[in-house]
């Protein structure tokens, strides 16, 4: 089973960039499709992006397509989310997990706040 720790969040102005990291543990990490999700205040958690276990296939939600890039380093057991052209509506707690997500694998998340 995969366990994760997210980091890299912070406060940034609209138009800025952040890079999130997700450090994972578990002997079979490299075999998992991994994904990023986010939850804004008062809203349900939503899917952001996912990447195949080999890292050769990615998929993004329409709201972040063209601005965010997901990547995966199996040797480091780390998943990244490069976020460019950030908007205030990207403000949320960002989580990584397997895809489909495992209920026991949710971490604490990392807060991203985009000011206008």
Query: What is the straight-line distance between the termini?
Result: 39 Å
User: What's the rounded overall pLDDT mean?
Assistant: 95
Number of strands: 10
H/E element string? EEEEEEEEEE
Largest sheet: 6 strands, mixed
Query: Structural class given helices, strands, pairing?
Result: mainly beta
Strand order of the largest sheet: 2-10-9-4-5-6
* Tally of separate helices: 0
- Helix fraction, binned, reads under 10%
Percentage of residues in strands = over 45%
Describe the structure.
The protein is an all-beta fold and 116 residues long. The chain is 0% helix and 49% strand. It has strands at residues 3-7, 10-13, 18-25, 34-39, 46-51, 58-60, 68-73, 78-83, 92-98, 110-115. The strands form two sheets. A six-stranded mixed sheet has the order 2-10-9-4-5-6, with no helix packed on it. A four-stranded antiparallel sheet has the order 1-3-8-7, with no helix packed on it. The mean pLDDT is 95.
């Amino acid at each position: 089973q995969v366990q994760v720790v997210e980091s890299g969040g912070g406060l940034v102005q609209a138009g800025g960039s952040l890079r999130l990291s997700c450090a994972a543990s578990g002997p079979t990490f490299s075999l998992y499709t991994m994904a990023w999700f986010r939850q804004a205040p008062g809203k349900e958690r939503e899917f952001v992006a996912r990447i195949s276990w080999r890292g050769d296939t990615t998929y993004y939600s329409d709201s972040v397509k063209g601005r965010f890039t997901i990547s995966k380093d199996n040797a480091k057991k780390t998943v990244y989310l490069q976020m460019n052209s950030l908007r205030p509506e990207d403000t949320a707690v960002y989580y990584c997990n397997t895809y489909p997500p495992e209920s026991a694998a949710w971490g604490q998340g990392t807060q991203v706040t985009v000011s206008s």
